[in-house]
């Protein structure tokens, strides 16, 4: 964890008893410094009520609890203004990191930037020990229940569990029956949602057993809060989170069965469309797992393989972030494209381990809650440590009668929900229902009593929440995470069998604490929406420092570079193309804006028609937008230019191109450095902040375009200087070279499209949009001629903007692409690059620019057309030979040329949405 340099406004941490002076009502009257100086704007003012809120902040005599005392004094020493400043800094950090929930939905209104409350939630050491024990016990208990349900089903045969809970439950997957044979499928990653209610008891309000989300957000919360409140961590005994993730990593290694070498562990994600994709990227990078999507995996002979550029690589462990039924479309009948066909058979054959075990969604059933105390004594020989929120399952006669009588009693209220957590059955509060609707509900419950559960409304405790520069009361739900590390263990042969004592559960000494601003909320849904708090678990011992590093008995094989999944290579290539495409468009638009903001009239600018034709050739504007010299209208051109920049409905607009950059970058976020992602975030922020004034729209647009070009150049510079020259960098650079070559060819074709000789103003404009003005004038001073300009932009391999430079770079890249075996002959893509590069190197510039009898440059025109078609063919062959062909929707359309297949590359034209 990183921390800020010492802040002159930050006072040393004090825990002196005299810091808080008690007044009537057990509230804090005033906060003082060690020198008895009263703090002008304490975070916790004397008027803020903290007594009677069951939050455990104050003791019965009105003094702060020991675990709250240091937090209160530290925050009060900062004051409101300083805490607000640091909170704004935290928001900036989260924006730079791209922390968001539901970030990549198509509807921008659904985007939810992650919110972090600067007021942490401290947990006393004694409380933490009790919670840790209870969560660990529950993890072992659920693992035993899962093993029996999908194994011998002794609990059902002996009437310890009713069959309706499972055989009528859509989350019970019959295809997983006997999937794990006699083994205990340990829950390697389990989440428990807890809430503290008005009786001062932490109760369980939900379980997450399929693919629990939130651990990555909790870790990010800790990183950010440690940056804005560093002294608290330096002075307090807050337990670290890294040891938990290290134990979790070990648990996944153990189920692989490999002891001497590091197993191949992948994290299976649904991709950027997932609402928690940030967490997938963050955890995979933090734990060193390969982040994959379903299309990256294939099953051959009951073995799961990762599809890479070098071939198929076997996978040992899959940490899934998908629901049970989305994992294998062949078995679970999933009609979508998600899932890995054949995965269940590979698990059944013992060739791959999946965490959490398939079918574990059955344990999220709310109707299971009333049976847990008895099952805990039966399976573990222990009493249940953590109580659940009181739940009635209507499948039991007594519970059914109680629920039916209470929902019709105006003096009582019940919260009715699905017994199987089915989204089709909404959660209803009888207090908000009319008598007619209550009668209908009662009829539904009588018809299918096993499908409903009921809870009495309970008031949660209120905790201090920071909102708009001051404190308000809010309720919290705390999600604790646990991991089971198996050092041995036996099979469950009956409900009397107790789990092996060698099974050790590690609980993360922290939590994802979600905040509800409404302190009176009665139901706590298990979602990640809303704000969050960092949870500080204190210890009476010494906080040890641990890392994620692991050692194996077998030495690692030294190698340079790394293999790359085909999908990642595909996206890296498109990322390079979109970035380069956007930069080229910006350079042409900047040249037009420069002339619009000049003092010269447009109708006398001889180079202006060429720039407009270039914009049309690049499909920035439509082909129709090229007004004659006597028909220029400043208002029309200004409107068109602004639409080229900001019209989201126009495929060729800059904002559409930047959207494509962000979308493709999100797909390979785990491969990009933090600095590269910051640059992309800055790019997005620059577009969002554009708010031109009425009388200076074009001038402000020009300033924005200048900033955007610098940002795009910064991204390219980071790739050049920071990325290793492995396959990821090569494919991204190939995308840039393909697009830059096409860009330059399009400019040259536009310049020489007319029969007349290009004038000096047009040549100067060409050098400007080609970013080669200084290079040309350094060589040839102020003389403008066609031959040296064509040589500089077409043939010169020393000029990074020239077509010859791009072809030489592409030739080098293509030669290093992996092959399945030694090749006796060159591949098709090698032949294409060799042909195009050789032609450019053998050309005589004077012969190339010789005119025929009609005054036409036939040789130059034919060469440019040949280069254009050759680059399109080269991109197609690279895609067919190396890249994933599944669900490819990335395309740079060309409205002026015949359409190509959806999966093919078309180099010129506007980028459509990914």
Q: Radius of gyration, Cα only, in angstroms?
A: 33 Å
Number of helices: 28
Unreliable runs: 1-37, 102-110, 488-502, 519-528, 885-914
Class by SSE composition: alpha+beta
* Envelope shape: elongated
Largest sheet data? 8 strands, mixed
What can you see in these coordinates?
Helix content is 41%, strand content 12%. With 914 residues, the protein is α+β, with helices and mostly antiparallel strands. Among the domains are: 17-116, no CATH class; 392-455, Dna Ligase, domain 1 (2-Layer Sandwich); 568-882, no CATH class. The strands form six sheets. Strands 5, 6, 7, 19, 20, 21, 22 and 23 form an eight-stranded mixed beta sheet that branches. A four-stranded parallel beta sheet has the order 9-8-13-14, covered by helices on one side. Strands 15-18-16-17 form a four-stranded antiparallel beta sheet, covered by helices on one side. Strand 11 and strand 12 (311-314) form a beta hairpin. The longest helix is centred in the middle third of the chain and has 31 residues, at 566-596. It is elongated and about 105 Å long.
Based on the model shown, name its key terms.
single chain; 914 residues; alpha+beta; Dna Ligase, domain 1; eight-stranded mixed beta sheet; 28 helices; 23 strands; disordered C terminus; CP_ATPgrasp_2
